[in-house]
Amino acid sequence: MAEYIPSTSDWVREQVELYEGSGGTQGLTLRDTGLPVIIVTNTGRRTGAVRKTPLMRVADGKDYILVASRGGAPKHPVWYYNLKAEPNVEIRDETLVQSMRVREVPDSSERQRLWDIAVAAFPPYQEYQDKTDRLIPVFIAEATA
């Protein structure tokens, strides 16, 4: 099994430790927003190490919508490139842990539908899109079993 390398970002590392250390019963919201998060576990494309990222919980039925916003920064988050290189992930949603496969949704009516769901769940996504020149990537995570 690959080595887990925690994030260099204090809040990300602490959120993952609290969420997973409690078995999915604590640390379930993004900082002080009260909005739910999931933990996405993926493989680092360069290191091959296990990486874990808390992302906003945006559901589309049994699937999850993953938005690579990085707060509207000019560049994609590192995890975006990891998912492009290795689309098999594990998603923890509270106490439920499941293997899933992600795919990036191209600019299309499907992407717009998913984007609208994401913005409804976390309105700042639209502000992030408005402040960056890049089209913020949207992934859909679907169960593999």
Structure description:
This protein is α+β, with helices and mostly antiparallel strands and 145 residues long. It has one domain: Electron Transport, Fmn-binding Protein, Chain A (Pnp Oxidase, Chain A, Roll). It is 28% helix and 29% strand. Strands 2-1-5-6-7-4-3 form a 7-stranded antiparallel sheet, with helices on both faces.
Output the keywords.
28% helix; 7 strands; Pnp Oxidase, Chain A; 145 residues; 4 helices; alpha+beta; globular
Helix and strand layout, with pairings?
Blueprint: H1 10-21, E1 37-43, E2 50-56, E3 59-60, E4 63-67, H2 78-85, E5 88-93, E6 96-104, H3 109-121, H4 124-130, E7 138-143
Antiparallel strand pairs: 1-2, 1-5, 3-4, 4-7, 5-6, 6-7
Helix content: 25-40%
CATH architecture: Roll
Reading the helices and strands in chain order gives: HEEEEHEEHHE
Outline the biggest β-sheet.
7 strands, antiparallel
In spatial order, strands of the major sheet run 2-1-5-6-7-4-3
Global shape? globular
Number of helices: 4
Number of domains: 1
CATH topology assignment? Pnp Oxidase, Chain A
Mean of all residue-level pLDDT scores: 95
Total strands: 7
In CATH, the homologous superfamily goes by the name: Electron Transport, Fmn-binding Protein, Chain A
β-sheet strand percentage = 25-35%
